[in-house]
From TrEMBL:
Keyword ATP-binding annotated: no
Cofactor(s) needed for function: pyridoxal 5'-phosphate
UniProt source species: Kibdelosporangium aridum
Entries under SUPFAM superfamilies matching the protein: PLP-binding barrel (SSF51419)
Gene3D superfamilies: Alanine racemase (3.20.20.10)
A GO molecular-function descriptor: pyridoxal phosphate binding
A Pfam family reported for this protein in Swiss-Prot or TrEMBL: Ala_racemase_N
Cross-referenced InterPro entries: Ala_racemase_N, PLP-binding_barrel, PyrdxlP_homeostasis
Keyword Cell inner membrane: no
Protein name (record): Pyridoxal phosphate homeostasis protein
Residue span, Alanine racemase N-terminal domain: 79-238
N6-(pyridoxal phosphate)lysine modified-residue sites: K40
Family statement drawn from the similarity comment of this UniProt entry: Belongs to the pyridoxal phosphate-binding protein YggS/PROSC family.
Length: 242
């Protein structure tokens, strides 16, 4: 366990150094870029180590895996306010469950999902399962490939307006994954343009979640405020969930 703690601490330092170097390249303040560890397929004990190192925003990509992990981390770290982000593709029938554990959903990509989440948040507030609205990022599909999730670029403005109208949801910004085979600079340049437009319409939408282990430098150069990092922090992902 001690060994794992050292490994995770070294991973955090290495990624923080990459973030600092990438920010220095473009004269950005590293404190404007949040490091969001993605703990999917890693055990709750790794999430605990990250939170103990001060990284109290953590991300998961599947409701089935996240629910029990969030509960386990809560029991292992009572009194620590870990904020969980959902970054994976989300089916509407999981909205109720996600509304009980997520502070932020970064993967909202359709009006129907936004409706389901707003209803789920309303129920969770009433039941006392949460005490604040849900922060939402719209996941943008940069290549329009519906298979991989995300909202097509030409539908982002309408979806942003719809999210902003719901009192249960708080439009925080946009998220994207660079499409397979695209140069990251091309992907994140395009995202930055969509982000600028969205922020013009909704000044509170200040977050641009972009960049992962392999392309965080490019994302930071294009204005990312949140890099979602798994393998560069924690090593190769186990093939199955814990
Ligand atoms: C897994 C995942 C990441 C992290 O990927 P790494 O390459 O391990 O850094 C980031 N974003 C999303 C949406 C993910 O599912």
């Amino acid at each position: 366990m001690t060994d794992r703690r050292d490994q995770v601490a070294a991973g955090v330092r290495a990624v923080q150094d990459r973030i600092a170097a990438a920010c220095a390249q473009v004269n950005r303040d590293p404190s404007d870029v949040m490091l969001l560890p993605v703990t999917k397929r890693f055990p709750a004990s790794d999430a605990v180590l990250l939170a103990e190192l001060g990284l109290v925003h953590l991300a998961e990509n599947k409701d089935q895996e996240a629910g029990p992990k969030v509960q386990a981390v809560g029991e292992l770290l009572p009194g620590v306010d870990v904020r969980w982000h959902m970054v994976g593709r989300l089916q509407r029938n999981k909205a109720r469950s996600v509304a009980r554990w997520a502070s932020v959903v970064q993967s909202v990509d359709s009006p129907r999902l936004a409706d389901a989440l707003a209803r789920a948040v309303d129920s969770a507030l009433t039941a006392g399962d949460r005490n604040s609205p849900l922060d939402v990022l719209i996941q943008v599909s940069l290549d329009g490939d519906a298979q991989r999730g995300g909202c097509p670029i030409d539908e982002v403005a309408a979806l942003a307006d719809g999210v902003a109208r719901k009192s249960e949801l708080n439009l925080s910004g946009l998220m994207a994954v660079a499409p397979l085979g695209w140069p990251p600079d091309h992907a994140f340049d395009l995202l930055a343009k969509v982000f600028e437009q969205t922020r013009n319409d909704h000044p509170g939408a200040t977050e641009m979640s972009a960049g992962m282990s392999s392309d965080l430098e490019s994302a930071i150069a294009h204005g990312s405020t949140c890099v979602r990092v798994g393998t560069a922090l924690l090593g190769d992902r186990p093939l199955t969930s814990p």
